[in-house]
Amino acid sequence: QGISPGMLFPKHPVGESAAELTSLLMFTVFQDVHVMIFIGFGFLMTFLKRYGFSSVGINLLLAAFGLQWGLLMQGIWHLVDGKIKIDIFKIINADFSTATVLISFGAVLGKTSPVQLLIMTILEITIFSINEHLVATVLGANDVGASMIIHAYGAYFGLAVARVLYRPGLRNGHENDGSVYHSDLFAMIGTVFLWMFWPSFNSAIAEPGFTQLTAVINTYLSLAACVLSAYAISSLVEHKGKLDMVHIQNATLAGGVAVGTCADMNIGPFGAMLIGLIAGIISTLGFKFLSPILASNLGIQDTCGVHNLHGMPGILGGLAGIVAVALGKKENGDPAMQAAALASSLGFALVGGVVTGFIMKLPFWGQPPDQNCFDDSIYWEVGNPVPHKYYLQCLTVKHHKWQRQWIPCLLKLLDEWFEDYIR
């Protein structure tokens, strides 16, 4: 016998006991979303070799502040007797509002001060709450997994901010704007947590029961297909068929983003996997070819590549939702309202991002100078261990057949390390 939705979501008497059961079931979903916000997003951005403290630490700060502000801003639209009622659904939505900020944080990672980012959090969540109310209540559009109102909105908001905060001094890159072996490994921790819990993210606000189970299954299949296409395309476009860790860390998640809008629709396994397959392709190609063009030609210095992970897949999700509704995959859906929701999300993101960027550009917010970008030491107490590269070089030389070279080499490496320490 197969598993029926009733086994996973049993029917109980209506009333207080049913409400308690629903809250208990939703708490597990809330935990999954919470892990994505604090561990998934935080560790995904630890790929920068000297910015790991800030990636995880400032992520924690912004998320903790943002969820409080999100409760307030979203609660204003749903007052009960003049008060903001807080329940399990409200705190899940507060986490959702925080996700938009963390996506935008990725676009300006390493180039902004904590104060600037707190200002961005206040403004972005405020604008998000307006757009979310417009899309969900006024337009009545379907976006259960928030491809449009979270991912596309957060990505293009961040890109607009990054464009306003453009730094000519970083046109040719920065010595710390890159990864090392262990920082990429830490980032993969974030990837795996996000990948595992994305079905909960896309189904969190779906109607409990069969609809919620549908959202879980569609996301599950889309993510799986996305991984295969991301690996395949990465191998095709890289030298000698090797894999690029940047692609694997990010593009493997694009399927969860893209299937969000129609996650609870009857698109079938093939539809879900097709969306994931396309998302993996466009995300990987975006990291390989589009990001350099945005940086060199448009002045958009997208540190984490949020355009490729959240922006383009978010638009793909919005377009997929329009097509799915037009094909009758969602009862009482209107493709025109879906299109209006996508346009609204992009419009609020671009205009709001530009305005926020100019506010963040004011000189008294403490924006770090170019030479201190992508460096934890400007905001954190950082120790000074011997750099990993020198340690490996010493081990390599130690076993060289000319043992007499080891001591002079060690002295030279210590001298180089001392120069790095002073610098």
Automatic annotation (TrEMBL):
Its main location: membrane. It comes from the Eukaryota. GO terms for cellular component: plasma membrane. One of its GO terms (molecular function) is ammonium channel activity. It catalyses: NH4(+)(in) = NH4(+)(out); CO2(out) = CO2(in); methylamine(out) = methylamine(in). InterPro entries: Ammonium/urea_transptr, NH4_transpt_AmtB-like_dom, RhesusRHD. It is found in: Cell membrane. One of its GO terms (biological process) is ammonium homeostasis. Residues 22-373 form the Ammonium transporter AmtB-like domain. It is a multi-pass membrane protein. The keyword Glycoprotein applies. Keywords: Ammonia transport, Cell membrane, Glycoprotein, Membrane, Transmembrane, Transmembrane helix, Transport. The chain crosses the membrane at residues 24-48, 60-79, 91-110, 117-136, 148-166, 178-198, 210-233, 270-290, 310-327, 339-360. Functions as an ammonia transporter. May play a role in the elimination of ammonia in the gill. Homodimer. Heterotrimer; a RHCE monomer interacts with a RHAG homodimer. Component of the ankyrin-1 complex in the erythrocyte, composed of ANK1, RHCE, RHAG, SLC4A1, EPB42, GYPA, GYPB and AQP1. Interacts with GYPB (via the N-terminal); this interaction bridges the (RHAG)2(RHCE) heterotrimer with the SLC4A1 Band 3 I dimer complexed with GYPA. Belongs to the ammonium transporter (TC 2.A.49) family. Rh subfamily. This is Ammonium transporter Rh type A. The gene is RHAG.
